[in-house]
Amino acid sequence: MTRTQRLLASASVLAAASITASPAFAAGTTSGTTITNTVTLTYNVGTVAQTPVNASDSFLVDRKVSFTVSEVGSATTSVSPGETNVVTTFQVTNSSNATIDVALAAGQLSGGTTTHGGTDDFDVTGVKIYTDSNNSGGFDAGDTQITYLDQLAADSSKTVYIVAAVPQGRSTGDVAGVKLTGTASEATAAGSLGATITASSGANVANQVDTVLAEANTANGNTAYDGIDFAFDDYTVLAAALTVTKTSRVVSDPVNGATNPKAIPGATVEYCIAVANGSGGAAATNIQVSDTLPAQTQIVAGSIKVDGTVTGSTCNSDGTAGGSESGGVVTASLSNVAAGSTRTLVFRVTVN
């Protein structure tokens, strides 16, 4: 090796070291960027400075494709039987050094343990995918239903929602697991989903942008370096378990008064309708009670009371005035009944 060649080689090593020491970013240098390195050699012959000698080298930055799909939050979504537009939230983050499209698919588990515990035992219905298109930070009417994320720029993220409905008849503790899967796709044209991205095979090709699938997630069954990533979330039912009990007692009669009264004509009979909500569920709301009076009775004016309590199986006389009677039908609204509690509707009739 000549002296000049040795100097050029040393300069090249220094230049390479300077490139290696450059700071790293999440996405890194944009794919397709031309990186050029030039070395300059100056020297003398005798005491005379000679014309500098330059040598340059250029290469294209290849494309590193990497993105993640992750659940937002760390708790299950509590839902009610029959509820619509129940939402689980995910974030899709592009850590590639290029813009990509991400094809999206919503799936449902079939048995097994869900992300937040419990066993998957039902499917939600009407499953759709939306993106937070108005950046409100929560699902609302301004969001857009999608099947893919279009032109997701390097180092950017999008919030994505799985939105569904809960069938009627589900019980407290029932769980539905859902899965959001993303597939890296070419960002060929805005407004249309590109083809699935595949890795370049063989040796690196000079002056060509090769593709490396760099997504390395192996958690929860993911496969590394396949251009696909997914995450899970779940819905847990919190239902109200209402039971209704109706009892009656003779309060007085025309002969015995209140002492050992009997249900003879002219007697006053008190009805109690007890609405109980089982423990561990959700509060029952908007409770409406309707009771048709027997033809052999008539309401005692001013006797209707709502939101009373029970002791054991006995209704207490602690309700407040409320409800109404019209055409032989007693109707009333009860306040919310929390899990593990009971509210009553009490009224009196006279036996004809």
Global geometry: rod-shaped
β-sheet strand percentage:
35-45%
**Do you know the CATH architecture of the largest domain?**
Sandwich
Order of helices and strands: HEEEEEEEEEEEEEEEEEEEEEEEEEEE
Radius of gyration: 37 Å
What would the CATH topology of the largest domain be? Immunoglobulin-like
Outline the biggest β-sheet.
Answer: 6 strands, antiparallel
**Total number of beta strands:** 27
User: What is the terminal separation in angstroms?
Assistant: 125 Å
Count of DSSP-assigned helices: 1
The level-1 CATH class of the largest domain: Mainly Beta
Low-confidence stretches: 1-25
Percentage of helical residues?
under 10%
Structural class assignment: mainly beta
Taken together, the total number of domains comes to: 3
CATH superfamily of the largest domain: Immunoglobulins
Overall pLDDT: 91
